[in-house]
TrEMBL record:
<dbReference type="InterPro" id="IPR039697">
    <property type="entry name" value="Alcohol_dehydrogenase_Fe"/>
</dbReference>
<dbReference type="Pfam" id="PF25137">
    <property type="entry name" value="ADH_Fe_C"/>
</dbReference>
<protein>
    <submittedName>
        <fullName>Iron-containing alcohol dehydrogenase</fullName>
    </submittedName>
</protein>
<keyword id="KW-0520">NAD</keyword>
<dbReference type="Pfam" id="PF00465">
    <property type="entry name" value="Fe-ADH"/>
</dbReference>
<dbReference type="InterPro" id="IPR018211">
    <property type="entry name" value="ADH_Fe_CS"/>
</dbReference>
<comment type="similarity">
    <text>Belongs to the iron-containing alcohol dehydrogenase family.</text>
</comment>
<keyword id="KW-0560">Oxidoreductase</keyword>
<dbReference type="InterPro" id="IPR001670">
    <property type="entry name" value="ADH_Fe/GldA"/>
</dbReference>
<dbReference type="InterPro" id="IPR056798">
    <property type="entry name" value="ADH_Fe_C"/>
</dbReference>
<feature type="domain" description="Alcohol dehydrogenase iron-type/glycerol dehydrogenase GldA">
    <location>
        <begin position="9"/>
        <end position="174"/>
    </location>
</feature>
<feature type="domain" description="Fe-containing alcohol dehydrogenase-like C-terminal">
    <location>
        <begin position="187"/>
        <end position="379"/>
    </location>
</feature>
Length: 383
């Protein structure tokens, strides 16, 4: 096969105040389930969407207790409650945790299969309820991807259920929803978006479509992440980060992430380290490991961010790797595994779990052997 696909949400709204568009989208619908979590509702972020839905004459069932980084069992419990409501619209206001469960609901309003079936056969599901995503982190890019990530506790792993039917129908990118985003969450989710973009740009599955969005995301992150983090009132920087995260999601849909995410998953699955933090831990070491196999690509990233005609390809690639190191430090993400209770004797468990994530390791430009994974984890654990 030698063709590429770009599957993305049908309608995307962007700009400060864009959350009001939810009323326009909801016109003609009868009942919406509005998904969110306690952190978001406590910050008063639901007032505007709720007002707009009411104005559009739509009945709303509010689910404001969605879990953070959900397990498959927690997702199943929400899906059961959702089905009992019989809605004809889904509205998700939240980070990746909320959006991922909302996306599962969009294909699980049925007796035919459950979320447990989708772990084995993700392609079985068909969308029956349209979904609107309003991300409040920038971010996972879940608003653009066909993925939903759930923790499977008995495997101690986070598993991605991937089905293009789960791609959202509508996306609204409004920085006002990020006005009270805690800086720690801003940092971790921003580096997650960075990991998506650089992994997709160097993925074996990269396409001209994913390249365009991945490079666009990298440039926006280069110009805005530090400001979005250190100036919480800077909504212009946050709006650009929302765009970057969305672009990162589009590039995931086209190309897929690689070994950074593969080796980070056990850190989330077994030690419950937040998704963005675990990716920040693996980001620079895996990209340095990959460098000999993607020097040209990294040099192109340098050309796109800050053209430096005096440097050769090797030096340009190093410049990008140094930037990755620097940005993780600038936004103060803790990257010492010991701080999170991971002990040197856990090394072999991490290797086994990390090597299990074949779906993403197969996308990596350099083959990752068990010995390579052991060295990458050991560098984090034993230094
Ligand atoms: N589907 C995908 O393509 C995809 C991609 C990457 C990650 N993920 C998944 O997404 C989840 C992580 O999502 P996340 O990093 O966006 O964080 P999150 O959704 O887990 O939110 C983290 C915390 O921040 C709070 N929060 C979020 N937005 C806020 C705001 N604007 N103001 C105040 N508080 C706010 C939440 O209440 C929560 O306590 C993980 O489960 C991860 O595996 C999915
Ligand atoms: Zn991610």
């Amino acid at each position: 096969m030698n063709y590429h696909a770009l599957k993305m949400p049908a309608q995307v709204y962007g700009g400060q105040g864009a959350a009001a568009a939810v009323g326009e989208i909801a016109q003609g619908h009868k009942k919406a389930v509005l998904f969110t979590d306690r952190g978001i509702s406590a910050n008063g972020l639901l007032q505007k969407p709720l007002k707009q839905l009411k104005r559009a004459g739509v009945e709303v069932a509010l689910f404001d207790d969605l879990p953070t980084e959900p397990s498959v069992y927690q997702a199943d419990e929400v899906i059961r409650r959702f089905r009992a409501e019989r809605p004809d619209l889904i509205v998700a206001v939240g980070g990746g945790s909320v959006m991922d469960v909302a996306k599962l609901c969009s294909v699980l309003d049925t007796d035919e299969y459950t979320v447990f079936d989708l772990l084995e056969s993700p392609g079985a599901a068909r969308k029956t309820v349209p979904a609107v995503m309003l991300p409040t982190t920038a971010g996972t890019g879940s608003e653009a991807t066909p993925n939903s990530i759930v923790l499977v506790p008995e495997k101690e792993l986070k598993i991605g259920i991937v089905n293009p039917q789960m791609i959202a129908d509508y996306v609204i990118l409004d920085a006002e929803l990020l006005s009270k985003l805690p800086p720690k969450v801003c940092a971790a989710t921003g580096v997650d978006a960075l990991a998506h973009a650089i992994e997709c740009y160097t993925s074996n599955k990269a396409t001209p479509f994913s390249d365009l969005y991945a490079l666009g995301a990298l440039k926006l992150i280069y110009e805005n992440l530090e400001n979005a983090y250190s100036q919480p009132e800077n909504l212009a920087a946050k709006q650009n980060m929302l765009l970057a995260a969305f672009y990162g999601g589009v590039s995931i849909a086209a190309a897929g992430t690689t070994a950074v995410h593969a080796l980070a998953y056990p850190l989330g699955g077994k030690y419950h380290i937040a998704h963005g933090v675990s990716n920040a831990m693996m980001l620079t070491s895996v990209m340095r490991f990959n460098k000999p196999y993607c020097t040209d690509r990294l040099a192109k990233v340098c050309d796109a961010l800050v053209p430096q005609p005096g440097l050769d390809k090797n030096a340009k690639a190093d410049w990008v790797l140094d930037w990755l190191d620097r940005i993780v430090q600038q936004v103060h993400i803790p990257t010492d595994l010991k701080e999170f209770g991971v002990r040197p004797e856990d090394l072999e468990t991490l290797v086994t779990l990390g090597m299990d994530c074949k779906r993403l390791l197969n996308n990596n430009c350099r083959v990752v052997t068990e010995a390579d994974a052991r060295k990458l984890y050991a560098d984090l654990l034993l230094n």
